[in-house]
Task: structure prediction
Amino acid sequence: MSNQTVVLITGASSGVGQSTARLLSQAGYTVFGTSRNSATAEAIPSVEMLALDVRNDGSVSACVSAVLNQVGRIDVLVNNAAYELAGAVEEVSLEEAKAQFETNFFGVVRMVKAVLPSMRQRRRGRIVNVGSFAGVSSIPFMGIYAASKFALEGYTEALSMEVQPFNIRVSITEAGFLNTPMMHNRQTSATRLEDYDPWRQRAFTAFRDQEQKAPGPQLVAETLLKIISSPSPRLRYLVGSQAKSVSRLRWFLPEGLYERGKRSAFRLDDR
Result:
């Protein structure tokens, strides 16, 4: 069995997952990437792509078992699979909200439950959850997406404390806006309430403007490499100058002033 660190990355067919798989492979890691349709996923040199639907218990079990049967262990799990659902909170149906959580939150829960037994047995492992700064400071008209990432924050913090006695380290990344394929694949609620139209449109325009000038997925990939290679990784990693600067403002500004700044950033008070 190879001495190379074995990494399993969910959602590796594009964006952050793909960039991370490529970077880690180039750095000498043994990398398994996953995609809901691995047959059509773009090939990444030295990365084996596996089929995985994080919403399905059987698919998760089969994927993790395939890696363990092939190389005997999973040293690092990177939970990256996610999507964005946009729309006013009132517009999002309960079914749409549940689907958002099924991927962004419960998909992580499934993967962690699948890899932890072997990590506990070996008394070592790394779990890195790809969160978002939206899980720290919510975004208007992305409330359900933000809620799924807020849930991931609480889950990650508790998990980190629980598995530390087994020499398993847990971290979460918190990136601001990124220029990735996710911005082109953003889903919107089926219902559109006319009352919200002016504010929703201005917020969506602000999203696009922020994303077009934002850093690409490589920035998160480099952070993930830093976390995985660190002998003592931190729990939380802010990614990008935007997330870091807004985080400082959030802590030091009075709440009302910070909220007014957010409303201005998303053009909610424009006439």
In short: The chain has one domain: 6-196+216-241. The first strand starts at residue 6 and ends at 9. The beta strands are 6-9, 30-35, 47-51, 76-79, 85-86, 125-130, 168-175, 187-188, 236-239. The chain has nine helices and nine strands.
